[in-house]
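ugh ok fine here u go
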Amino acid sequence: MGRHDGGGIMTKGDHNSRGALGAKKLRAAERKEAAMLLALTIPAIIVVALIIIIPVGWLFSLSFLDETGQFSLANYQKMIEYKSYLRVFRTTFNVSFLTTFLCILIGYPLAYFLSQMPRKYVGLFMLTVLLPFWTSLLVRTYAWLVMLQRNGLINNFAIDLGIWDTPIKLAHNLNGTLIGMVHIMLPFLVLPLYAAMQRIDRNTLQAAANLGATPIQTFWQVFVPLSLPGVVAGSLIVFVLCLGFYVTPAVLGGGKVIMVSMQITAILEDQFNWGAASALGVVLLVATFAVLALASRFLKLDSVMFGRH
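structure:
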């Protein structure tokens, strides 16, 4: 069958040929658009390659070289043979876990308080959360050292009030390290958690109350589960950042809290062994990726990190 169009007859084959031509043009336009997008991303790809891929690849290659520059697995064998390396990794993960746990204990009530405040006051209180970012990490760490040392502000103030009689050891140990790291890491948990709490539909909470739930039940059974993506996102950020911490445990730990980054520095300063230091860095990098892979295995990281549903 066909139809008259301007004195001619268009057959079914003409329809098919025109449809195929249109599809071909559409595919060509899509390829052209993809090529343009790729061209636009080339500068970013080059920057990522120069800043991340090439240095990590160089680090990876150095880890397989011995002190004579020959290919060897000796650097990785040492980490298996010597228990000191295992203790360093255990300390690193313990400190990171404890810091993350304490940040959740302190940060959740703070984020909840911010989420319940009128919007006109949130900016002022949020400024107090962001204020530490305006000060150098090294300055904040040494400020805590001044406050926590035996003759520091906290000990002197507590003795004057009669809370304790003699100075207690707050610095140069795990306690001082945790205090300094929690202070530095707390904003990284509060910000994504506050954002997650702001996305919670308040009508859901009102519906729970209308159905007979008490305020405590509404909080624990409705609000807390809905805010868990923010808790997970903030916890991942804090935990991963803590794995590579150097300044705070080095200053406030007093040499008694040895983390992987400090061990790498010690190897380079004492032995100047780039291979052994690189092997430690590679293992820490792999461990970090393993944590993220494990989290992505049980969680949808795109919805957790970016609030997608």
